[in-house]
Amino acid sequence: MREPLRRLLGCLTLLLSSCGEPVSEEKLDRSNGEIIPAQKPNIIILYVDDLGYGDVGFNGATAVQTPNINQLAAEGLNFTDAHSTAATCTPSRYALLTGEHGFRRQTDILPGDAPALITPGKPTLPSMLKSAGYQTAVVGKWHLGLGDGNVNWNADVKPGPLEIGFDYSFLMPATGDRVPTVYLENHNIVNLDQNDPIEVSYSEKVGNRPTGIERPDLLRFGADPQHSETIINGVSRIGTMGGGEAALWTDEDFPDIFTDKARNFMRENKDEPFFLFYSFHDIHVPRIPNPRFEGKTNMGSRGDAIAQMDWVVGEIVAELNSLGIGDNTLIFFTSDNGPVLDDGYEDQAVELLGDHKPAGPFRGGKYSAFEAGTRIPTVVHWPGIVMPGNSNALISQVDIYASLASLLGVELKDNEAMDSLDISDALLGTTEVARDYIIEESVVTLSLRKGQWKYIVPTLNDKQEVAEWVATDKGIEGGFIKEPQLYNLQNDIGETTNVANAHPEIVMEMQEKVDELVMMGFRKH
Ligand code: NG6
Ligand code: CA
Prior knowledge:
The protein is of the alpha/beta class.
């Protein structure tokens, strides 16, 4: 698609009856005698953590109110078959930012002291946008590793986001349940007292703070053994941490602090195109919403965290509008993987669920090979350009990279974003034809979607332990069996009946396709 942005703006400003024909530059530049610049939109990705398809009002939730997200969905395009690339955070984020599937680099969930997964020199979504003239920022959860091996949290922490294309970063380094529990602004820990240096370890106990095993009496809620190390703010975490007392975060402040940083960035860059990757902590564990959201639902902290996240969405949109740039901003609202209730803390998410269906009509959840692992709520909002409605197009977040490049007229290099396809027409709602295939990555296997078919690659024997963990610890149906699985989503959206034995030729074709795509990538394919 050549110069689609100009074409769309042309459609809008010239009020043409049809947008099918490319608009010539001459037409675009002269409307009522005025010169209309082909403006680049601001781009915001609102990336929620562990939010399920059914967790939002616009997909049917009633036990939690999400008025701000519902409004985005009502004004934008609501995708019913949109996917994160993976059923866990690290590979999904890797794919979003590199346009390359997570399994090529890292399938596992990273520990909090892992080195940077995306290393300098690797083409990234923010670096591509920078080349198109964008100011770029990431605010919130990172979980893609930092530093080059032995990270020293008391010195400049790099490489990190600034070395791969972001101009500004304000981060939770890994996850809310992993140490270090401090903010990292650009290269430095915020409020760090050099006389009280931070030490972090994932292999032995460091520091004097008690662990959850030693002092369960200090905890707000119980935790499984992995989440029972250093206690910070009444919550035992994964990993141990000493020092850094003045720099410790307070979980209840996340929505206010991250949103303030995002607001500042938008204000400072309101006159030039910007890209903001707003990466929520919500609704990941530990779920400790600010007291003003407590009791907003009857579902306990998981429901209240959804309400809190919705409030943040409203704040971001309100800020855009008050800056007068709401109409010139393309917003993606989506999630990094499907939902989980018990993810290590006894926070009553299971007990208080009631009739709420976090995954909507889909089977499985976070970690899983079934649809709920990656099929997540997704809205594309761009007033005047993207028309309100629903789209059943099959889309994957890995394509955001190539699609934005196409919209902005940036040509991708051969080694860039190898799995990312230009599906900008589908993202903007002019077609429901997007991809022939998508790969869904789960913790121990891959799935392939094509047409009505969903194929799950057999899980190897040496992965059965992880499969068991998902089933027993998380109470989630993983879909990790040793036999091939094939589901016909056209009449079995809940993946209840494995029809692999009835269609051996489709199973073989799908497996061959997986092998081919894994080997060659989608763009070379
Ligand atoms: C798992 C954690 C889980 C969560 C997840 C990452 C255990 C037992 N479980 O290893 O609580 O932190 O990692 O979630 O340690 S994600 O959304 O960032 O992928
Ligand atoms: Ca996640």
